[in-house]
Specification:
The chain is mainly alpha-helical. Helix content is 63%, strand content 4%. It contains 10 helices and 3 strands; from the N terminus they run αβααββααααααα. The protein has a 3-stranded antiparallel β-sheet with strand order 1-3-2.
Length: 248
């Protein structure tokens, strides 16, 4: 039950600020109140829900600063994982998994446009690529922390900017360059590329959430928009001189 509710929150079925009460949720899902009660408590412990006295639980509203901080932490962790993979080397099986993921992404983007029907496959590819690197780093703690951070809206593999082909295409190009840095055993480059890949996407997401394009429950205060527009107006250069627009 917790997995089902978590997925619904991350997918946006329950938007930030939405109230979740035991009886309506149980009725909607066709189960008793007991598993719903346990699931709500578990998701509160994970930080996805807040308890509101006399009103039950509400989907947590993450601030601009919280999202920025989570992206920073994730960029450091995933950068370190990529650097470790390059430093110590990865198995042929893991490299083959990265190559298969890259091939899937290439196929999805080959048409020069974003088909809504391709979003689930791109999500799966993106998640496989990142998970393979964190796991192959050999640090179970890093993999666990990245997974925990990924259980937060806008920080998971749920991609909200599927309308922007240029952004997604550049993000997938980042994937190729990270893979190459790992395969050629260049830890400094692998770490820098992955950190840029994740951190720039944080800027893009915050800019989106400050814009009129974002659904009202997700939108940041208007005064945040100017800050993020300036921050994301020009992508910082990656170590090979190309602007890095990452999509996690």
């Amino acid at each position: 039950m917790a997995d089902r509710l978590r997925a619904m929150i991350l997918e946006g079925d329950y938007m930030p600020g939405s109230h979740l009460q035991e009886v309506p949720v149980a009725e909607a899902m066709g189960v008793s109140r007991t598993p719903v009660r346990a699931a709500l408590a578990a998701l509160e412990r994970e930080g996805l829900l807040d308890y509101v006295p006399k009103r039950g639980f509400a989907v947590r509203v993450f601030s601009r600063e919280e999202i920025a901080d989570k992206y920073f932490v994730r960029s450091v962790l995933e950068g370190a994982a990529a650097g470790q993979c390059a430093r110590c080397g990865i198995s042929e099986a893991d490299l083959a998994t990265l190559d298969a993921a890259l091939a899937d992404g290439d196929r999805i983007l080959a048409g020069g446009r974003l088909d809504p029907d391709d979003l689930p496959a791109y999500r799966q590819m993106n998640n496989q690529f990142h998970r393979t690197i964190t796991t192959a780093s050999g640090s179970a703690g890093t993999a666990d922390l990245v997974r925990q951070i990924g259980q937060i809206p806008f920080l998971s593999d749920r991609i909200i900017l599927w309308h922007d082909y240029k952004l997604i295409d550049r993000s997938h190009d980042d994937h190729h360059r990270v893979r190459d840095a790992i395969a050629t055993r260049d830890p400094a480059r692998a770490e820098a590329l992955m950190r840029e890949h994740v951190s720039f996407m944080g800027q893009v997401v915050r800019r989106y959430l400050s814009s009129a394009a974002a659904p009202e429950p997700l939108r940041f205060a208007a005064e945040d928009a100017s800050d993020d527009t300036a921050a994301a107006g020009e992508a910082p250069a990656t170590s090979d001189g190309a602007a890095g627009e990452g999509n996690t």
